[in-house]
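Give me structure tokens for this 116-residue protein.
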Amino acid sequence: MLSSAFLGMDSVETRKAQLENYVMQTLISNGLDELFFWESEAQAKVEFIIKQGESETPVELRTSTVGKGKSIASYLASNANNNTKTDNKYYRLGFENFYSTTVMKNVPYYAAFCMR
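Here you go.
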């Protein structure tokens, strides 16, 4: 239904809206129903914050392969001073294949169901 609402409108914003909706529905169906959005005053945005117990894990959605994750870095820096438990790890969903670093797990969109 969401695709038909955007019929004829092919832009980055519409694709991002569809991807956000798909990821949200997938995470909720996996039992991750405490999802939040974060935005800083300087317009840094993190699409999803997964809250499990006392810990929070940010999830970044990518529509391109360029970018340095400044929004995630801003989120992690802002929560370093709070009492929020963030272990400086985050998920990034995009069009690239699976890979991970010490702080980030890249998951392709088609495998969003793997996130738990």
